[in-house]
Amino acid sequence: MRAFEAGSEITLPVEDSGAGRGSRVLALVPAYNPRPAALAATLKSLLTQTSATDIALVDDGSVPPVEVPSFARERVSLIRLAKNGGITVALTAGVQFACDAGYEFICRLDVGDLSYPRRVERQLAFLDAHPDVDLVGSYARILDAGGRTLFHHGVDGGAAAVAAYLRKNAPFRHSTFFIRTSALARHGGYKCAFDGAEDYELLLRLAVRGRVDCLSETLVDYVEDPRGITETRRALQLRRRLAAQLTHLAPLSPAAYAGVLRTVVIMALPRRVARMATLRTWARQAAPGT
User: Fold this and answer.
1) Under 8 Å between Cβ of 25 and 120
2) 130 by DSSP, 3-state: which?
3) Would the CA dihedral through 90, 59, 150, 116 be positive or negative?
4) What share of the chain is helix, strand, coil (3-state, %, to 5)?
5) What are residue 78's DSSP bridge partners?
6) Digit-coded pLDDT (tens) for 80-121
7) Distance (Å, rounded) from C-alpha 143 to C-alpha 221?
8) Which of 50, 10, 21, 7 shows the shortest CA–CA distance to 184?
9) Rounded to whole angstroms, how far apart are CA atoms 25 and 205?
10) pLDDT of the residue at 284
11) Domains (range + CATH), the chain
12) How far apart are CA 33 and CA 45, in angstroms?
């Protein structure tokens, strides 16, 4: 394990440093007061990848500080932030580390979520075969806290379908992101102004300036945590989603205005009603490959 200290103010490097480590891929896992069992499960899913993957665990000022499980210490770089700065600050610290260390790709995963064994292999092969794509996601199996499958989340149809769906919401989960580090250096990384919807804003920006795609296969298990950002900060997340849509609004696109209107309507709905609508919508979609 390699431990690094980092302050809360992070500046993203302009260019990739070019000096790699043991892998081309860095799995970036931010954590704030994580449950030890959930952290262990997430790290194990990354350690058993069929393609070589290094791991950076960003401790976002946890109290007490995060301890890397003994089984993972040889493979994990631990980045400690001096104080809790929020998800976007933690992600930016990890991106800076990846750029400085020369990783070609960043693979995202949140504590509690699990990557299937061939996840890195499949997404790495896709980006190698599609040099024009800056970021690729995948389907995720969405589970409740009890392990029950709720639905599969993702978008088929290639980059055009992903860009179209982005006008109204995220086409796939943040934990499925697989990103070229060079694209973040060119177009900028996560933005603190959109904290809570930082992943959605990044997708919108990369789709406008480059290409974003989604693999039509399930590569991640995403566990809905009642304590998570989506559940506890819904109002803030929706405001930031709306701000991202307006920032990247395509003025001649009716779909862009429809997406803005959709977000405004959802903001007015009680969380329970909006959640039921989401479950019904996605439950009608079959899992990829079925």
Assistant:
1) yes
2) coil
3) positive
4) 40, 20, 40
5) 3, 57
6) 999 999 999 999 999 999 999 999 999 999 999 999 999 999
7) 7
8) 10
9) 22
10) 76
11) 2-283 (3.90.550.10)
12) 20
Amino acid at 132: D
List helix spans (H) across 35-134: 36-47, 87-101, 119-129
Q: Please give the average per-residue pLDDT across 209-224, as a whole number.
A: 95
Q: Is the distance from CB of 247 to CB of 201 less than 8 angstroms?
A: yes
CA dihedral 229, 183, 116, 33 (to 10 degrees): -30
Instruction: Retrieve residue 34's tokens.
Output: 């994580």
How far apart CA 49 and CA 55 sit, in angstroms, is 11
pLDDT, residue 20, reads 42
CA distances from 52 to 124, 139, 172, 227 (A): 10, 21, 24, 32
The two three-digit tokens of residue 113, written as one number: 């979520």
Contacts for 163-167 with beta carbons within 8 Å, 24 or more apart? 163/207, 163/212, 164/255, 166/200, 166/203, 166/204, 166/207, 166/212, 167/245, 167/250, 167/253, 167/255, 167/256, 167/258, 167/259
CA nearest neighbour of 3 among 73, 92, 64, 84: 73
Q: Is the pLDDT assigned to residue 21 strictly greater than 80?
A: no
